[in-house]
Amino acid sequence: MSDWRYRLAEHHGTLLAIGIFVVMFAVYTSNHPAGLTANVVQTAANKGVLLAFVAMAQALVVITAGIDLSVGMTFVLTNCLASWLVVGSPLETTFGVVVVLAVGLLCGAVNGAIVIYGRLQPIVATIATGAIYFGIALMLRPFPGGGVNEDLADALTGRLFGFVPASLVTLGAVVLLVWVPFSRSVYGRAAYAAGSSEVAAYMSGVPIRRAKFMAYSLSGLLAAVGGLFLTFFTYTGEAAYASGNAYTLFSIAAVVLGGVSLFGGKGSVIGAIFGALAFRTIGDLLFVFDFDPLWQPLFQGVVLLVAVSLGAFALFRVRNRLDWFA
Amino acid sequence: MAAPSADTAAFFRMEGVSKRYGGVRAIEKADLAVTAGSIHAILGENGAGKSTLIKIIAGVVAPDEGRMLLDGREVSFASPGAANAAGIACIFQELSLVPDLSVADNIMISDPPRRFGLIDRNAQRRMAEAALERAGAADIHPMALVKDLPLSRRQMVEIAKALARKPRILILDEATSALTAADVSKVFAVLKRLRQEGMALLYISHRMHEIAELADECSVFRNGRHVATYPAGSKSDNEVIEMMIGREYRHIFPPKGTVAAEAKPVLECRRLGWTDRLRDISFSIRPGEVVGLGGLDGQGQRELLLALFGVLRGMTGEIRVDGAPVRVSSPAAARADGIGMALIPEDRKTEGLMLPMSVRENLSFAALDRIAPHGIINRGIEDGKIEEMVRLLSIKTANPDIPVGALSGGNQQKVVIAKWLMRGPRIILLNDPTRGIDVGTKQEIYQLLRRLADEGAAIIFYSTDYDELIGCCDRVLVLYDGTVKTELVGEGITDRALIASALNINAGDGVPASGAAA
Amino acid sequence: MTDTTSDPARRFPSFLRRADPAVLTAFVCIALLLVFGSLYSTSFLSPEYLLQQLKVASFLGVIATGMMIVILLGQIDLSVPWVVSAGAMMACAAAAYGTAGVALAIPFGVLCGVAIGLVNGIGVAYLRIPSMIITLATNAVAQGLMVVYTGGFSPQDSAPEAMRWLATGFLLPGVPNAVLIWAIVGAAAVFLLTRTTFGRSVYAIGNRERAAYLSGIDTRRVVLIAFAISGGLSAFGGVLLAGYASKAAQSMGDAYLLPAIAAVVLGGTSILGGRGSYLGTVAGVILITLLQSILSVMQMPEAGRQVIYGVVIVAMLLLYGRAPASR
């Protein structure tokens, strides 16, 4: 039995993303003046997890062959909300965290309802809901400000046992609590099936709509976890339009780098996480090689452009030109 | 698993089931009785209603009238999932597998084994392996991705998937057409075992020898109606063909023309091939000829027309126009002046017309280069040409600016034909142009085709209606499995010959399978 | 309400088909907004105010024209923000290079937009990358290029005289040049869409690319050209905006993506492509501009404006833009 060959085939996108990240991170640390220290790892982890959460959120929707252009705005909205609510006594803080997560879930559910039951195109629907979420964020925080329970924030952005970044542990916990159950449930399976071939999924009697709705809702939840972490890092809430847009864009880049097919049905949230970490490392690499940080947006854009163009090679295998228009 | 019933009475019945698509009858007042522990073959030519029948049983489409009884209780299936739950599994021609999931995921997709609410992958794998074993496909690895498997292996996965549901009724719709000979014998052994275990099998196939080997009972359908049910082996091939022939109306066809024997061919094909769908096709056609493409649906006729029209990539062989080799790499190249081809596509709603756009816009679309010098539309020329076409084909439209989708099916089809006639094509390819349109319009199209041929056009005409091939064509190439098996000429084009050669059996007066004239 | 047929136009007789219900609704909304505004302040109905609104609308109008052509194809162009900025910055930058630079400033800015549009078009038409993705990517690249070029600050070059005149001057007395330009661009778009092979092909591809291809149209070239036009018009919008503000700014294009899409969609153009009239886009542009103006006169904060935008778009789409029920 050569199971490993099939496992490799099934997860090759994810494995490739892990590989890319490991190589990039190795190059980064070996050129970093301080080398591979707990500090360097912690800084990198804290920079990376924000995008990782948002990329996870995007990946869930992309697997169903959808797209969520409001994910960055959900992230900003929950950041603003957290800067009001995640403060005070442990009980109040807990309550705040729960409310923030619930609001994220609601944002995702609204997207899902509009796309699935309202039958609108995900692109336009989520651009519009993104505007709404950003507007609400701006109402909550017309100016940057607010605060956060600093004990919690420091605990979650610090280190465990002196060397393990707590943010990475949280990321792992979220994967275990959200992604693993979902992906191994009937609904997760149905989400993949619907993304890969909606007709075949229907013929097989799979719960397509409920699965998609769950994927959109959980996507909102994950974006909210990202928003919480943003608050933990910055101690404030800020309705930053450019930042929301950038996170939406980077989440798509991370998903593509992470081996999740934009046509749906392929890839995993794990891949998206490593795609996000790799994408973040681009900036770090520019830093250690003394590039002007001004070049960072251009590099990120070019990486994204190249990544999305790679998928086009499948076109050369199309033997019937009518399949272009499928 | 269904226990074998004590008596052989049918446990599933369809009574008076009808289904129409638009104005076209697909199946009318059909009856069918399914008995446990037997293999029931369904026979019929193209358009006899076989696929509609099984789609209704499998819950893919809902019948307009009639009822279905399962164990004496009336049932109706809202979706394939509902039919599944009632113990009906169907192996469709169009595969229902999810390409990006593994074989095991696909086999167990509708009801995976679960522990604590999550899918138990080890159990799933064991069950999938068992199902593959049962289907005689133990060579397929349960973790392989479906999209990485060749077509024949996918078909075996499809069979395993149906078996894993432990159905009471298993429907196989041309399930063996993609299989290798070795697979077929394995599958047959499996099917016979399932019959012994008490399962009811509905077997749809056009391969007569398969039916002879497997079936206990046969039902023949014709024009959407149930004709007869008889015990297998009680009728000869000839009698079966006789039952499949026979129509309720006869068209009046225009008299056939005569082609000058010395006329040079306008189009010649030499050893055309494309993937595994077209093999070694050679033929030629002269101006004034109407050449039919016959055979059962899906034997490569559609691909052949698309190949000639420049849609397929990776073709082998040679196409010559007026004796000179040409490379046709797109429909734009095919319609260009030196070649002058036109294709009336299979599905006018998705390939022929832009339904919400006006009759005018649709009519002039293929000939825009003629009426829009320098890309700017000359309304004067356009109006003139459109008026001419509306008159020539007597298209019934209030005015040319209403959406083409508002016209009747027959008039829509006339628009598709007219938009190509506006270019004055020399080679006209038609893909089943009369499907789903009224009798009157059909007659007009037959007249038109003959007139175009008389005016010097070469016409290649694929039809699923054998009557049309007999009435319209000077020659018919009968395709079987991607290649031309038989060529029928003139008086040799008969019902019997068409059906026999379509089924690739040598019955009656068909010309033996000997390859076509080059 | 649940408009599930693939062809709602079929339900209307021919003379009503031209008057798309969405276009009518948009114009009714414009009238209502004006009435509502005049209750708030009588100056809402004054010619000066209306002309001023038209002038503000013309920048969005030029950008939305390109967006409309792309949406008619069933695609979308999300690279608008940084194509607008790039067009403005490159035009201003060219003007810094002597008299030749000044003369070529406007064409150069527009050409930069065309170049980005061509990349989008190649990606969509030839590589079959979803337009949403490739245009997001080129937007990021354009942003990266501009950030590198400007060093992350608003560029110092100011807009040359010609650009300012184009955006703020008066060629015809009483008619601002910006309005005149929008009228010319609009007339050209109407001509292109209704009277040319290209326009017919755009609608046909939006309806059914397969049928257009089988009719012998080079659909890929049409898509490529449409994206190039969209890029060029976005950049031209940027040039006008820079002329209006006398200089280019980093994120000047951000405020135009959502309104451009909204204006096209609110004007009855189907987001799935193939259906829509330029008149509708004009109505959508004016509607959006008036909505913005009234919200700001009422001192509605940016937050409320965003929410109202989003809600209006979702609501209008639920009325007109739903995909057919699958079965």
Biggest sheet of chain C: strands side by side, in what order?
1-2
Largest interface: chains, residues each: A-C, 54 and 55 residues
Shape of chain B: globular
Provide the β-strand percentage band of chain C.
Answer: under 5%
Strands of chain C, count: 2
Q: How many domain units of chain B?
A: 3
- Please list the strands of the largest sheet of chain B in the order they lie side by side: 6-9-10-3-11-12
User: How would you sum up the major sheet of chain C?
Assistant: 2 strands, antiparallel
Q: What is the count of helical runs of chain C?
A: 13
Radius of gyration of chain B: 25 Å
CATH class descriptor name of the largest domain in chain B: Alpha Beta
Largest sheet of chain B: 6 strands, mixed
A few lines on this structure:
The complex is a heterotrimer of chains A (326), B (518) and C (327). With 518 residues, chain B is of the alpha/beta class. Chain B has helices at 50-57, 80-85, 103-107, 121-134, 151-164, 181-196, 208-214, 237-244, 301-308, 331-335, 348-352, 359-363, 368-371, 379-392, 409-421, 439-454, 466-472, 495-502, and strands spanning 10-21, 24-35, 38-43, 65-70, 73-75, 88-91, 114-115, 118-119, 169-173, 200-204, 217-222, 225-231, 267-274, 278-285, 290-294, 316-321, 324-326, 341-344, 427-431, 458-462, 475-480, 483-489.
Report what the structure shows.
The complex is a heterotrimer of chains A (326), B (518) and C (327). Chain A is an all-alpha fold. Chain A has a single domain (9-309), classed as ABC transporter involved in vitamin B12 uptake, BtuC (Orthogonal Bundle). Chain A is built from 14 helices and 2 strands, in the order H-H-H-H-H-H-H-E-E-H-H-H-H-H-H-H. Chain A has helices at residues 3-10, 12-31, 38-63, 71-85, 90-117, 122-140, 150-157, 166-183, 186-196, 198-203, 208-234, 241-257, 269-288, 296-310, and strands at 159-160, 164-165. The two termini of chain A are 37 Å apart. Chain B is of the alpha/beta class. Helices cover 31% and strands 25% of the residues of chain B. Chain B is built from 18 helices and 22 strands. In chain B, the strands form 5 sheets. Chain B has a 6-stranded mixed sheet with strand order 6-9-10-3-11-12, with helices on both faces. In chain B, strand 11 and strand 12 form a beta hairpin. In chain B, helix 4 (121-134) crosses helix 5. Chain B starts with 9 loop residues before the first strand and ends in a 16-residue tail after the last helix. Chain C is mainly α and 327 residues long. Chain C has a domain at 61-254. Chain C has helices at residues 14-18, 21-40, 47-72, 80-95, 98-126, 131-150, 161-168, 177-195, 197-214, 219-245, 257-266, 278-297, 302-320, and strands at residues 170-172, 175-176. In chain C, strands 1-2 form a two-stranded antiparallel sheet. In chain C, helix 3 runs parallel beside helix 8 and helix 9 packs antiparallel against helix 10. The longest helix of chain C has 29 residues, at 98-126. The two termini of chain C are 18 Å apart. The model of chain C is unreliable at 1-17 (pLDDT under 50). The interface between A and C is large, with 54 and 55 residues.
